[in-house]
Every structure is written in C-alpha cells, then in structure tokens.
Amino acid sequence: MTTAAESHANDERLSQGVLGTSSIVFMVMAASAPLAVVVALLPLAFAFGNGAGVPGTWLLATAAMLLFAIGYVRIIPYVKNAGAFYAYISASVGKTIGLAAAYVACLSYFALACSTLSALAFFCADFVQRVTGAQTPWELWAAGGIALLIFLANHRITLAATVLAFALVAEILVVLTLCVAVVVQRGLPAFELGDLTPGAVVAPGLGIALMYGFNSVIGLEGTAIYQEEARDRKRTIPRATYIAVVVVGAFYFVTAWCLSTSVGSSSVAAVAMADPGHFVTDRASEHLGWVGSGAFSILVLTSGFAATLGLFNNATRYVYALARDGVLPRRFAKTHPRYGSPRVAGTFLGALLIAVIGVAALLRLDPLLNISTSLVGLGSVGLMALLATTALVVPIYFARRNVYGLGTTVAPALGGLVIASATWLAVDNYSALTGVESPIINSLPWLLVVAALAGFAQGVWLRRRHPQAYERIGASQVEDDVATAS
Q1: Cα 167 vs. chain centroid, distance in angstroms?
Q2: pLDDT tens digits, residue range 158-168?
Q3: Could you report the per-residue pLDDT of 410-450, keeping only the tens digit for each?
Q4: How far is CA 160 from CA 157, 163, 294, 308, 431, in A?
Q5: What is the pLDDT of residues 225-250, one digit of tens each?
Q6: Helix, strand, coil tally for the chain in percent (to 5)
C-alpha cells in the first residue's frame, strides 16, 4: 500500500533511467546552438578578436573546459541534484552562497532562452518574407515556439532529446560539408600551422575572442542537470561530459580554421569585419552553391529552436530543483504522472515567456535589436561566472574532506582561473558581447548582482527562521535519496 509520503515523493520525481550518453550529449550540444555560434559568433571573433588566431583561441577555451570537466565529474557522484552548479556550490562553500548561485542560474538560463526565442522569431518572419514575400508578425512565431516548448516540456524528456538530436545532426552535417568543401577546394597546404602558434593566439583581441569562445560552451552544465534522468549516471554523466567538451571543442576549432583558410588567414579579419552577418553564408554560397547557402538559412532556424529548447529545459529543471528543495513554492516541483517531466515548472516558465513577449509587443520592441541583444549578454555573463565559481569551489569541496590531487585540486583550479579571466573580459567588453552601445542594455549585468543578493538574503532568512528548509538546499535527490531528503 502506498503511503502519503511515498505518493508525495512520486509526484515530485523525474523520469528515472531514460537518458543514455548520446541523448545527454545531444541535449548539451544543442543548447550551445553550434550552427548559430558558427554563423553569428565566429565572424565576430574574427572581426573584433585576434583574427587568424581564433582557431587556436577555441583550442585554448577547450583546454580550460577540459580542466574544469576533470574536477566537475569528480564531484558529481557526491552531490546528486538537478540543480547541478547550485548544488555543488552549496556543498562546497555554503548553502546561502549556493542559493545565490541558483538565482543567477535561473535568471541566466531564462534570459538566454528568451533571447534565443526572440531571435528565432525574427529570423522565421524574415525567412518567410524572403521566400514568399508575405509579412508575418514575429510575435506569431514566438507564440508558436512557446507552445511547442511547453508541449515538449510536459512530455517525457526522451521526446525533447529526439527532437534535439535530429536538429543537431542536421546542422553539424551541413557545417562539416562546408569544411570538407574548403579542404578539397583550397587544399591542405592552404592551412597555415602558424595560425596555431602562441604568437598568433596571444595577439590583440584575444580577450574578445576568448569571450566568444567560452560563450559557445556554456551549456556544459546540462550533463549534470540531467543526471536524475540518466541511465547508470555514475558512468553516463562523466562520459557525456568529456564527450561534449571534446566534440564541441573539436567542431568549433575545425570550423574556425576552415573558415579562416577559405579567405586566407591574413585576410579573414578584414573580410569578416566588412560583413559579419553574411560572412558564413557567403562562404557557403562560394563553396557549396545556392543549395548550401539555402541549407544554412533553414538550419539556422532549427538550430535556434534546438538551443531555445535546451536552455528552456535547463531553466525548468532549476526551478523544479529549487521547489523540491523547499526554496520556491512546492507546487513547482510537481511532475507529470505519466511522463515524469517537471510540467508545472515548465508551464510557469512558458507563461513568463508569454508575458515578456507580450510586453515587448505592446512596447513595439524589435525582437533582434532590442530583446535578443539585451538578454544574450546577461545570460552569457551569468553562466560564465557560474562556470568559474563552480570550478574554483571544487578544490574547496575536496579539501574539506582532506582529498587533494591533480583531478580534484589542480585541474579545476587552473580551469576556473582561465574561465574567471574570460568572464572578467566579457564584463569589461560587454558592449562587444551585446553588439550595442546602449547604456541601459550594457548595465543589465547588475541584474545578476541583484539576483545573487536576493538568493543570499533568502538563504540567511531560511537559516534563521526555517532551519529544516535551509538544510534541504542543494540536498541530494537521486534514486532512494528522494524519499529521505524531503
């Protein structure tokens, strides 16, 4: 006979053991929107960063993320919670600081989801106009995207994983096809090994290029966010983390080097600066013809939706984890009785997206120039700061247990220092990240400080007034821990 406590726990339990390594890798990579990064960020890195040194810069960012991952996967077995970064920071340096990190994570993921959705709606309307000549309101595409997000969020996570896998495979194939065409048409001798030397990488603009490099891999947290829904998580999550870092890093490195070689490493900065918006599609048209250019135009849309879905799923699981830990209203921890999905949290965030889009429409804001540019920097800086913080607290977690070593201390600390440096550069060059000079938009990172202070204040209040709820912050919630942690 099922007791009331068991029934309550089951109402708040995610689907168990439904995601394998490949599914998690697809979801993490899709959240980073590889095609969108190639089309939007790589040209900016070439134009405003260190030019021919961009491929080497992506290698540097990948090396730092691998150092981070070495410590990250070691802490995962000890802290089991869908709140990932929030739970790790709580376990390492205290629950009040962890709760501050959780609020920053929620704001960052939601901001990025809203930013990506707004850009997607703009490009959908633009694509339809270019193909048919008909003008359609971007708000209509945004509403359709939100409806699809809520539908997928309310169903089993494997459905979202399947959607993301198809979108990801398609966009990677079209980019790799362009890379192969460049190699065949330009020839291997055209690839300059000097582009990978320290002299080329450590050049003026390295900071800006690093900023874009780390911005392209900030979805790595997803491997641990889905650990409660993973099969054999002790093997699946570390494996998925390493695969995601290596595959994403190699993909961007190869693509950047091919794009640079396609126009000549000595000219790539000037060519990208002349027209960054069409730099990649022009290369596709040149090497693949109109079919390749058209494929890029279409797959940018699927890539945008895949990224929105991945970011939305991450935000949903953060709200769910905070509600289950007793920080947010408990209702948000309710899961679907059949699919085990965080349906209430997903519906709530979907409603927030509707509210943001509705207000923007009433104010007649531009989805790309106003909404997307305003929020992309906010979310990116927030997640980069969380990456750096998590890397730097991993050694503290193990030091408190008298565990020291290359993987638990040295590697994550080094990775954290590099990521923290890139985060500072992102803040210092924030207008380059947003692409606008508006003082209002470029002051938005202060919202991250407000969110962190709100979380910290709530943590202090819970510790004084509700110590039992305070103890649940960041608590382990996997397998049989679910019933005992409530």
Answers
A1: 16
A2: 566 666 677 77
A3: 999 999 999 898 888 888 878 877 777 888 888 888 999 99
A4: 5, 5, 26, 11, 34
A5: 666 677 777 778 888 888 888 888 89
A6: 80, 0, 20
Residue 286 in contact with residue 262, Cβ under 8 Å? yes
How many CB atoms lie under 10 A from the CB of residue 211? Answer: 31
Q: Which residue range(s) make up the domain with 150?
A: 4-485
What predicted TM-score, i.e. pTM, was given to this entire model? Answer: 0.82
C-alpha torsion 324→328→329→334, nearest 10: -30
CATH of the domain at 199: 1.20.1740.10
Tens of pLDDT, residues 45-61: 898 889 999 999 999 98
Under the banding of pLDDT at 50, 70 and 90, the label for residue 370 is confident
What is the tally of structural domains in the chain? Answer: 1
What does the block give as tokens for 413? 């600390």
CA distance 118 to 359: 13
Instruction: Give the distance, in angstroms, between the CA of residue 268 and the centroid of all CA atoms in the same chain.
Output: 27
Q: Which neighbouring-strand residues pair with 230? A: 19
Q: Which two tokens stand for residue 5?
A: 């406590």
Cα 413 to Cα 92, 276, 280, 393, 404: the distances in Å are 14, 35, 36, 8, 12
Q: Is 48 left (phi over 0), alpha (psi -120 to 50) or beta?
A: alpha
DSSP string over 108-163: HHHHHHHHHHHHHHHHHHHHHHHHH-----HHHHHHHHHHHHHHHHTS-HHHHHHH
Residue 335: phi and psi, rounded to 5, are: -115, 165
CB 68, CB 383: distance < 8 Å: no
Nearest to 59 by CA among 206, 191, 172: 206
Match 């995207």 to its residue by tokens.
145
> Letter for the amino acid at 138?
W
